[in-house]
Amino acid sequence: MTKSPIEMDLALHAIDAFEQANDLMEEGASPSELRPSFTTLYQYVQGLINAPWQDFHQVMQQYPDAAADFEHLIRTQAFAHFPELAAAAGDSISRREQEGYLLSLAASIAAPDQVYLSIETNIDLSEEPRHIFIKSADMAWIEIKIPPMTNGRAQIVLTNDDPAVRAFGQPGAVLYIR
Amino acid sequence: MSLSLDALNLEGAKSEALRAAIACIMDATAVDGGPRYSRRVISALTRMIVCRSYAKPTLELSHLIAAISDNKNRFEHVLWGVDRASPTSFRGHIRTAKLIETKAKISVQGITHISGGDEFLISFGRMPVLAALVEFLITIFGYQRVDEITATIRSGSPSMREVSDVANALQRELYAYLKKNLPPAHRQKRERHFLQFVDEQAGNRTGAEAISDDAVLAYWRAFADDTSHDNKTYRSVYEMAVRMVIALDTASERIQGNNAASIGTHREAGEFDLEDVEAVMAAYDPDDTALSRVVENSVDAVKFITATEVEFLSTLPMRSSIERRVPLSIVRNAVQGAHQLKISAALRRDSSVNQAVLLVREGSYQDCLRKYQELSDVLERILAAALWVLFSARHPSAISVALTLAPDINWGALATTAAAENETTVVVSMDIRRTMNQFFDTVPDARGEELQALMAECRQAYRSINRKGFTDPGDPAAVSAMSDGVDDLTALIAAIRRYTEREVGNVEWDDIEREDIPVFRQIFNRLYLRAAGIAAHD
What element of type H or E holds B476? Predict the structure, then answer.
């Protein structure tokens, strides 16, 4: 029946492959069920978008691949990286210093349930840091937004029970400023 | 061959991870919330995956990474420094990026990676798909792994050999991933059924030659209510025929152009060079036509075309082989195909509809043609307005647009001054710079010389258009987008005119419509009214 079998076969082969490609491109899962794309992670780390997730920690837990990409990304793009403190002097840390940045926690005298997190730097900033990302000792990701800095200084008020305060104090926590 | 249930489940699981990775790339959004990668880019990436034709793209990507990596050995700021991955955005961004001069050279076409005495060009046009490829690799292998593989080419001045080694490493990992995650393609029974039908009716004609307007209509009449194949709508049959024509024509070109099959392929046994398969797929990719490229160019700074215009023009295949082989089916699809969708929507709303709903309005075929022509006129006005913008910015691409819009103008007039200065010259000299200056110094005047009148017309067109990019002739983003988009716009106008004027300019559409109406009414009756128990007669 077929008069040009090779052309016909190649055409049908391509049709089969085309359908396979269409099938792969079919949108099954809704965007909210997908892992965050690398583009989203990059835009977020660069401060181009606000956190596109309601719960950053939960998203990072749900998608370990994305969390690994995020960690590598923040490590390569961070202004400062505060590694684990292997030989910490006490159980809880209240001060960390690295790469020209000093982070310190101080209790509020006026409101005993609050603490101040100070960020100080003597670096001439061409690009302002916007976030502190903390990976706690139990691998939970926490984000703290840094307000605009004045004379190399910014301060954030947190409550004592804020997970960020707890994580900051853990010697095993890793912090990044970006 | 039938698959067991277990095997089917396994196939499903196999494709799930890959499907999720592709969905993740499709979901990547620009800062404004629109897609970062166009449908055309996603299609090209998926084709590359399905056909495993990633050898060249991974080499291009490796050269690109080597060329753009900075003093900190990072490349992301260039690839993700662009919000929407389009050639225009990459061109704009890379021109302003600080690249290391000893290993990267920027030209009109793209970036050239320099290593030793050798050079490798990566065009701006390829960058969107390469950006999608690297994001896909990061998604499936992990960012850290991609970083490890590419480490050697991100620092210093990597040699061509090192770049090629990285490309090979990416290919090896991709091969292993796809072996695990890409299920085999399924045989498409419907297309084979259609081809067999056409072949049996075709007499001496073969391949795409056998697919005609009559064959498309006859197949639909015969199998519209055959539930084993999805042929209920005329549109679905027409679209299948279109795909088969393009696939068969391209397959024939590939086979004839490459009589000696690649080593290792055994065509009689159904083995083909995967590049041939990809080329055939690419040829009928609906996301890669003159229209889709204009749509893509309309996303950023300039709106060449509106959504309503796109919707109507998408009924035109924009490919001469289709227009030549099934010219009438195009209008049948645009009119009757669209009407069939309305019938089924009307029946869903109200099952008591009568026969009147089955008929298209008289003169619909003629109206359809008229609308195509009107849209090509609108687009030509847009092109004229774009010429005014490019002309005002003294952009060199204005000259080729002017030549397209007015090929009959006496361009020799621009050379007159130059020739007069040297009257002993027999051949008129067109000193390029001087000619360009003369062109850009033209004073628009509706009653002046031909070129002056053309520019006056373009200025008038510009003033009459109220679309994004046509309100400030000095906007550099609009100028750049127009210079990138005018070729595709010209191709789109040419494709519409080719069909309306050359292919079907002499068709007596009212006669065709008169013959078609009873045929379509009969089948619509069968499919909708009788099936719903509504009294109907053919």
Answer: helix B476-497
Could you tell me where the DSSP H helices lie in B416-464?
416-420, 432-440, 450-464
pTM of the model: 0.80
Q: Which of B225, B219, B210 is nearest to B237 (CA)?
A: B219
The pairing of strands A101-107 and A95-98 is antiparallel
Q: Is A51 on the interface with B (CB under 8 A)?
A: no
C-alpha angle B174/B177/B179, rounded to 5°? 105
Dist CA B330 CA B168 (whole Å): 45
pLDDT confidence of residue B425: 47
Q: Which 3 state secondary structure label does DSSP give B176?
A: helix
In chain B, count H helices and then E strands: 24, 3
Residue B426 above 50 pLDDT?
A: no
CA atoms within 13 A on the CB side of B234: 32
Residues 98-137 on B with a CB inside 8 Å of A are: 135
Q: Which of B331, B369, B360, B456 is nearest to B406 (CA)?
A: B456
Report B:145-204 residues touching A (Cβ under 8 A).
Answer: 147, 183, 185-188, 191-192, 195-196, 199-200
Q: What is the pLDDT of residues B350-393, one digit of tens each?
A: 766 666 677 788 899 999 999 999 999 999 999 999 999 999 99
Structure tokens at B442: 């033209």
Q: Is B239 or B274 the better-scoring residue by pLDDT? A: B239
* φ/ψ (deg, to 5) at B146: -65, -40
CATH of A80-177, one of 2.60.40, 1.10.12, 1.20.58, 2.160.20: 2.60.40
pLDDT (0 to 100) of residue A87: 57
Q: Which of A50, A81, A38 is nearest to B76 (CA)?
A: A38
pLDDT at position B2: 39
- Average confidence score pLDDT of chain A: 87
DSSP state of B113: E
Sketch the domain layout of chain A as residue ranges. 5-77, 80-177
Say which amino acid occupies B169. Answer: A
